[in-house]
Design goal:
With about 270 residues, the chain is mostly beta strands. It contains 3 helices and 14 strands.
Amino acid sequence: MIQWTLLWLLLLPGSIVFSQALVPSYAPEDLSKQLIKLAHSIESCSSVSPCNSPQDETLGRLILQAEDLGKELGIGMPVSHCLKIASAHTLFDGIHESGYVRMQCGEDLILVIVTNSGSHWERLQTLTIRNKHWSAHVLVKSVTGDNSQQILVHMAQYQSGTGINQQNFLVYKLKDGKFIDILNLVEVAYLNEPWTQHSVSQKSVFVFQKPTASDNPPAFNETQTLELSGIIVELKRKHDWSEQEQKFVATQWYSGRRLAPQKKVKKN
């Protein structure tokens, strides 16, 4: 069963897109305010009621600004198409002031990461994460046993379609000036017809474990529930932080048991 699980995971590849560049300076809050103001300005204009006041640009100029800013930030579309814009401050390397602006652009979750080099702010990188159902959850937390901060993304969309769904748990760490994933695991998934005659579902819960000693590194404890044709199995393992490899490394499954199916409650 364990071998089958691992093979099944290999059948569902991911699609995370990275881009990196240095562009004009932005603090997270300033960039967030600029994006929101621009989006609201465009929404308030139309071909029937254009923005012609001395304080506002015309609709055409605003759209050009949105397209230019979208290209500048590596978003791939005008920022006026993006929603749920927010920003946050942190210390990604544990030393320099940094932060990110989060926005939903179409089916993608966009994280525009900025850093303060000491004299000015600059965009470091743009992370584009599939988020078709808007269910991804982002938080910043130190999980590697030092002062640096990592980006944790729950429920990132990897696959979605008729009879198939996969959402992953991701952890990103800044390394050599670029964010890389140091943990990338299936969090929720299912596979039904037409892909298979037997419905398969998987759900994993990840609990962070702080280091308690030098020989006990930070770790994520995973409890996975796998269901195949009415058979439910619970598996457990750990993902230990490796300072040498600079990523979380999975242990062997150390616990496995079959669970009784949950009884359906009849409605009166």
